[in-house]
Amino acid sequence: MKNGTDSFVSLVHWPFAGSFGFNTDILATNPINLSVVLGVLIFFGKGVLSDLLDNRKLRILNTIRNSEELQGGAIERLEKARARLRKVEMEADQFRVNGYSEIEREKLNLINSTYKTLEQLENYKNETIHFEQQRAINQVRQRVFQQALQGALGTLNSCLNKELHLRTISANIGMFGAMKEIID
């Protein structure tokens, strides 16, 4: 350190030399060179550096202002989106409730329709059974009647002789004649 202070002190006492030379002592020349360069930079670069810093400050302030405006717009859009989301959620809930009630109504309508269809089928079944019973009863009646008629004809044919047969025919013709006179 003594060399560093000695070199500054010795600057004042330098004798004027007639020749130019290089000082090879690095520790003595670096502080001098640095102080000269810093002095020149401060003297000439103060305005440029001040302008650069002012421009940088303005750009930063503009960026902050733009960011705040964008943030305000984003917050406003976010609130609008939240309001739309709440509205859509309420509509979805309403559709869901309406859908459930519509499903219940359709379910009840389907059940009622099924019951009506079952009643109609039951009625058709009962009518068909009744019709088939009547048809069977009529068929039995016809057979009984045919058998009774055949039995009566057989009995009549076996019991009637020619004379009795002629008297029955004459009596019937007489009855028809009397009926004809009444009608005319």
User: What structural category characterises the helix and strand content?
Assistant: mainly alpha
Q: Total helix count?
A: 3
Helix content: over 70%
Order of helices and strands: HHH
Low-confidence stretches: 7-13
The N- to C-terminal Cα distance equals 175 Å
Characterize the biggest β-sheet. Answer: none
Strand content: under 5%
In one word, what is the shape? rod-shaped
Mean of residue pLDDT values: 82
Rg (CA only)? 67 Å
Please state the oligomeric state of the protein chains shown.
single chain
**Beta strands, count:** 0
Summary tags:
184 residues, 91% helix, mainly alpha, 3 helices
In a few lines, what is going on in this structure?
With 184 residues, the protein is mostly helical.
Structure characterization notes:
This protein has helices at 2-12, 26-159, 162-183. Helix content is 91%, strand content 0%. The chain has 184 residues and is mostly helical. Helix 1 crosses helix 2 (26-159).
Task: Describe the SSE topology.
Blueprint: H1 2-12, H2 26-159, H3 162-183
Helix pairs in contact: 1-2
